[in-house]
Amino acid sequence: MDPGNELPLWIGQRVAARRADLRLSLEEIAARTGVSRAMISRIERGEVHASAVVLDKLCDGLGITLSALFARDADSPLLRRTEQPVWQDPRSGYIRREVAPAGTGSPIRIVEIEFPAGAEVSFDRSNFRVIEQHVWVLKGEIEIELAGAVYSLRTGDCLHMRLAASNTFRNLSGKPARYAAILTLETGFNGAGTTKVLLNR
User: Fold this and answer.
1) Can you give the pTM of this predicted structure?
2) N or C: where does the chain have the smaller number of CB atoms within 10 Å of the terminal CB?
């Protein structure tokens, strides 16, 4: 997979399909997310390599996680490393790899993140979803700010995060870090009612 060419088209198709499922117009999803109608239209056409922050805003309005945009349904329960979708954030440079095979029926997603030295990524609070996530540092050090608390994590440390508030990931060290995020999504928004649903991304 060429992350510079194929993946933006895939992401755009996922965004457009989800928006259609929820019967939301471009104007409505723009109002929900704070992302402009023009930008959403360009994303849906695969014309722009949007940042993780912008895509996460869209995902919140659509009631999904970032993994839902990147993951592809696997043909088997085994997803080899060479087949795992990889995407790089154009703003921070962090690289995310969708490790767990999608389409198995499991609500659990596993993502591997390579976080460059000095990188920082801040995500807004969620309005239409709550993400249950464990962050497990595999190598290096990272700092996570969540709901006014700051956590310094080193190799082997694991932090549970119930993501509804805004949060920030930082690598203040001079070396790259690598961590795994193990997550599920609980949302009260399904486009029709307020039933809580676990979504497999």
Assistant:
1) 0.84
2) N
| The pair of three-digit structure tokens given for residue 173, joined into one six-digit string | 């060290």
Report yes or no: 55 and 66 within 8 Å, Cβ to Cβ: yes
DSSP labels for 99-154? -SPBSSS---EEEEEEE-TT-EEEEPPPSS-EEEEEEEEEESEEEEEETTEEEEEE
Contact 158, 137 (CB under 8 A): yes
Per the structure block, which two tokens stand in for 122?
């801040």
- Contact 100/81 with Cβ under 8 angstroms? no
Domains of the chain by start residue, with CATH: 6-68 (1.10.260.40), 75-198 (2.60.120.10)
Tokens of 64: 């999904």
d(CA 116, CA 93): 7
Q: Select, from the ranges 44-48, 177-181, 183-187, 196-200, the one with the highest average predicted confidence (pLDDT).
A: 177-181
pLDDT tens digits, residue range 56-68?
A: 999 999 999 998 8
